[in-house]
Specification:
- By secondary structure, the protein is α/β, with parallel strands linked by helices.
- It has 10 helices and 15 strands.
- 32% of the residues lie in helices and 25% in strands.
- The strands form 3 sheets. The chain has a 6-stranded parallel β-sheet with strand order 12-11-10-13-14-15, sandwiched between helices.
- Strand 13 (249-252), helix 6 and strand 14 (275-278) form a beta-alpha-beta unit.
- Helix 1 packs across helix 3 (106-116) and helix 5 packs across helix 9 (319-331).
- The chain is elongated.
- The two termini are 31 Å apart.
């Protein structure tokens, strides 16, 4: 489960009191998965539990709690997703409303540090009326504060990268929620800060990528840089390939075809990446294949070069359109889940 809500909650608490709304569990069809969270302040909403009338009513309840007109203690509320809410999902959900006030509690600070380090942990929450009791278990130690019966399930979740949602266990008369919290952003190295590069960064800003933005022209980077984007002005862009994580996504769109070729060569020669996209036409791809083949790149590796980039159904040469098509391609299940990325253009 993504740790984005952790960051959103910390940011909200820097401003004042808020209510954390957690979708604890669902039965049947529901607009979001168990573990989805939303942070509600007096004038702002961060995150979502699925939209629609369910979310509208949850926001209203949270703000009544903030105003002191609906009690200020944490509580669980059931909701049927049928005619009463004017929703047609047909299932039901249970929401936890948890009022919080500054400063950020220790469990939240621990989770924030986990996310900042790109690590993971398990949030174990005891729910017995009143305020929930939160405990954070990390891969090394830190589960000692949990009941003995929870330690094996917690370790199993820590070791399972695919674990999602909330697992509910009854231990020693209390209901416990166990949820894996991890930073799910994929490393992406973007070469080129021209018009399309700027449009791509803008499009990807709220999507699950950790972007390293490389260009030899320092003055090309905009003054405002989104979060999870690190600019890297350098006279040796090609050298940035070697330091990228093994599963990195590479996107190449510099001001120079020769530089594009050198970067693609470095990525293909290294061989450890999940996606290599090169902006350009089919004819550019053919030229690059010919040149890279002469430089010793094998046919199997050349087939991993994606050029043109973007989903074919999204057509247009405007920077924003190219960025949209490429963002959709990167967000596709095939690109994000396969350890070796696409095998053909």
């Amino acid at each position: 489960m993504s740790s984005a809500w952790v960051r959103q909650l910390v940011e909200a608490l820097h401003q004042g009191a808020c209510v954390l709304v957690t979708l604890r569990q669902h039965k049947g069809s529901a607009p979001r998965e168990s573990g989805a969270r939303m942070v509600v302040t007096a004038d702002e909403i961060r995150g979502s539990i699925g939209g629609g009338n369910l979310e509208h009513q949850a926001i209203a309840t949270a703000r009544e709690m903030l105003a002191g007109t609906a009690g200020t203690s944490a509580r669980l509320e059931p909701y049927g997703l049928g005619p009463a809410l004017n929703q047609c999902c047909g299932g039901s959900v249970e929401l936890l409303f948890e009022p919080l006030a500054p400063p950020a509690p220790e469990w939240l600070e621990t989770l924030a540090a986990v996310g900042a380090q790109g690590d993971h942990g398990v949030l174990a929450t005891a729910v017995e009326g009143g305020a929930p009791g939160h405990h954070v278990a990390l891969p090394v130690g830190r589960e000692s504060s949990l009941p003995e019966a929870l330690r094996a399930p917690v370790r199993a979740i820590l070791d399972d990268p695919s674990h999602s949602g909330i697992e509910v266990l009854s231990v020693e008369g209390s209901d416990w929620w166990l949820q894996r919290i991890a930073e799910t952003r994929r490393p992406l190295v973007l070469f080129g800060a021209g018009h399309v590069g700027k449009a791509l960064v803008k499009t990807l800003a709220d999507l699950p990528f950790d972007i390293r933005w490389v260009d030899s022209r320092a003055d090309e980077f905009p003054a405002e840089i989104p979060g999870h984007v690190t600019t890297m002005p350098t006279d040796s862009p090609v050298a940035e390939v070697a330091g990228a994580p093994p599963n990195a996504i590479f996107v190449v769109m510099t001001h120079s075809h020769d530089l594009d070729e050198d970067i693609c060569y470095a990525v293909l020669e290294r061989g450890q990446f999940s996606f290599l996209g090169l902006i350009g036409s089919t004819s550019k791809r053919r030229r690059f294949e010919h040149r890279l083949r002469k430089r010793g790149i094998a046919e199997a590796a050349l087939r991993r070069l994606v050029c043109p980039v973007g989903l074919p159904a999204i057509r247009g040469k405007e920077p924003a359109t190219i960025a949209l098509g490429l963002a959709a391609q990167l967000m596709s299940q095939r690109t994000l889940e396969s350890p070796n990325g696409p095998r053909s253009a």
